[in-house]
Amino acid sequence: MAASVDKAYEVIRDGIVRGVYAQGSHITAQSLAAASGLSRTPVREAMRRLHAEGLIKLIANRGAFVSSWSEGEIHQIYQLRLLLEGFAAEAAAQHATDDQLTELRALAEEMERLVGEAGPDLVDEVADRNNRFHKLIVQASGNLRLQDLLSSIVEVPLVLSTFRRYSLPELRRSMSQHLELVTALEARDGAWSRSVMASHILSAQHTLLASIAESAP
């Protein structure tokens, strides 16, 4: 049963992040079961897991819908990221341990390498390292409450959606910003670290909103 749930989860999640199931679209256990070749029981369990992760919204008396964000919601999320992660970067410049800085450097260089290779799983691999990178900066800030706040604001589906809209040059720019941020942290320069983080988040917001505008009917 567990293996079937895991398979259903991977199939549905992949369909969502790749746009097979469009944002805001209504999905049912029956249709997902037919698409994945599995029974509805593991599919329902997988849907509950995806709901917990924010990829699916379960609405009483209406059913399940793929998560979506309005332009206003995207602005709100990124403005909060700008404030909170900017503060985290500034604090991390003062409080990060040498081991944390070493790990951040390794993650930034690995992301740059992945983009350079441009493999078939590029987006998922970079998104995974990016998530670890940003979480580690918050940890390095030494502020546990900040970590709780950001985990409730930064939604993984939105981050994945953003990366999938990047062109290769935009991905390279993002990776370059990661490397500059690590350099600023290593220099223990809080103002520089906050500035680089701000540029990084604002460019991500611009890329996402511009892509949405271009794909609008």
Brief synopsis:
The chain has 217 residues and is mainly alpha-helical. 76% of the residues lie in helices and 5% in strands. The N and C termini lie far apart (42 Å).
Describe, in plain words, how this protein is organized in 3D.
By secondary structure, the chain is mainly alpha-helical. It has two domains: 2-66, Winged helix-like DNA-binding domain superfamily/Winged helix DNA-binding domain (Arc Repressor Mutant, subunit A), CATH 1.10.10; 71-215, GntR ligand-binding domain-like (Four Helix Bundle (Hemerythrin (Met), subunit A), Up-down Bundle), CATH 1.20.120. 76% of the residues lie in helices and 5% in strands. The protein has ten helices and three strands; from the N terminus they run H-E-H-H-E-E-H-H-H-H-H-H-H. It has helices at residues 2-17, 29-36, 40-53, 71-95, 98-117, 122-140, 144-151, 156-164, 168-186, 190-215; strands at residues 26-27, 56-59, 63-66. A three-stranded antiparallel beta sheet has the order 1-3-2. The N and C termini lie far apart (42 Å).
Beta strands, count: 3
**If you compute it from the alpha carbons, what radius of gyration comes out, rounded to the nearest whole angstrom?**
18 Å
What structural class should be given to the helix and strand makeup?
Answer: mainly alpha
What's the SSE pattern?
HEHHEEHHHHHHH
Low-pLDDT segments = none
